[in-house]
Design goal:
125 residues; OB fold (Dihydrolipoamide Acetyltransferase, E2P); 3-stranded antiparallel β-sheet; 1 helix; 8 strands
Length: 125
Amino acid sequence: MIHPEKQYADYLAQGEFMLLRAKASGKFIFYPRVAEPLTGDTDLEWVKASGRGSVYSATIVRQRPPAADYNVVLVDLEEGPRMMSRVDGSPAAEVRIGMSVEARIIQEGGSPLVVFVPTTIHQAS
């Protein structure tokens, strides 16, 4: 039996951020599922994600002190899909739409989780 959510979690537990890709169309799929949306194609393969993306939308979740505020973002992955996560390594108020980010796998609550960190663009001198 196919269990794409479990396979995705197993990859994360091994430190691998993987996406499903439909072999016929070449389209990447997130959240893991058994068939490509719209076509129903079930000939899917796991492919290592680049981890690169940009913030599509961002919001700040305000916390009662002493807890720190945090952000919730939608990230457009370089491969095409959009996923919900958060940006770590930057104050919540500094996360901006269009910000370049890179995926990291962290452990939280005993489970692996994909979060993003801002990327620094290095210019050639």
